[in-house]
Write a structure and sequence with these properties.
Layout lengths: L2 H5 L3 H24 L6 H27 L1
Helix pairs in contact: 2-3
Length: 68
């Protein structure tokens, strides 16, 4: 996902998306260990998406008190 798309989401949507991606990452790692994963680059992509979401969540939480 692109950072701009993520910044347009609400905090609860981002948290939900992060949980979904972590679950998907767990399943991909499991497939990789069993030798069933065809595209191992997908693991890296999902890890980067999770990191982007965590960064944007941190930014949003830092800005939240400034708005009040």
């Amino acid at each position: 996902m692109k950072p701009q798309e993520l910044r347009e989401m609400e905090i609860d949507e981002l948290v939900r998306k992060e949980a979904e991606l972590k679950d998907q990452l767990f399943k991909l790692r499991f497939q990789n260990e069993l030798g069933q994963l065809e595209n191992s680059a997908k693991i890296q992509t999902i890890r980067k998406d999770i990191a982007r979401i965590e960064t944007i969540l941190t930014e949003m939480k830092a800005k939240a008190p400034a708005k009040a």
